[in-house]
Amino acid sequence: MIRRTFDVLVLIGIIGSVTYAVFAHRDEVMQVTRQVEARFLPCRSPITYSLGSVDTRFGISKTIAVADLKEAESIWETSPGNDLFEYKDEGGDVVINFVYDYRQKASDTMAASGIQIDKSTSSFDALKSQYDSRAARIASAKKALDAGVAAYESRQKTYNMQVAKWNRQGGAPPPEYDRLQTEKAALSVEAEGIKTAESALNADIEILNAVGTSLNKLIVELNLNVERYNQAGASTGREFEEGEYVSEGGSQRIDIFEYSNRTELVRVLAHELGHALGLGHVEDVEAIMYKVNQGKRLSLTKDDSVALNARCASSLF
To answer: Which CATH architecture describes the domain 41-100+243-312?
Structure first.
């Protein structure tokens, strides 16, 4: 009897502990529950999403970002009652962040420099040629700048030695003093020239890096033979992705890295939302779920629809 009573008390303790844990972490529990439902009962209830951080360097307001997200959502909700996603001001299952890094910086630099490209091999070849010529020009400018800096430093050293010498003697006579003042002014002008040359060189290097990143992007978008084009000297050693869907540690997020215009942004948002639905890539190059964002349409292709219908029909129950 005592043992039975003890077992009952232990059971009550376990139930109480579980109940407390569920209550204390109800938001996390509900989120995990929704993730499990989305995986095994796809399309039964909408996936909620919220806008997270938006780096101001993208130049897009949160209001516009939310509007673009809702348009991306509508691409998938093609029929009445097909409520696959639901926007929440905060606390959504999927959090969308705009992460500014080398990719968007390259796009912005290209635009500011007036360099326009399209997604074609001829555009790649023209850009590669520009990269090579700019790289050669930078190498030449750097060599000239290094020589100029060395000459300036030698001239400055001589000036400093002469000033120190006359200081030890109690001061330079008027003619020598005037000459040293003239030399000081000339050195100041030379230093400003070096700073100007350094700034121009750094700006040119920034454009070169942007062109290199754009070449890497085109290699991915055009599915070019990397071995053939790896002599462009443009490899950053980093994979180029405009966006990424990540599910880890019980949380889900979409990171947006780069876009050139609103159509590209809405498409990449829709693409990553497709991954949140559990969709993989399809073969149609115009499709939302094609592996790279090179289409123009803001609607599903046949391949997209087939993938969506198959996913929604894959419920285990």
So the answer is: 3-Layer(aba) Sandwich (3.40)
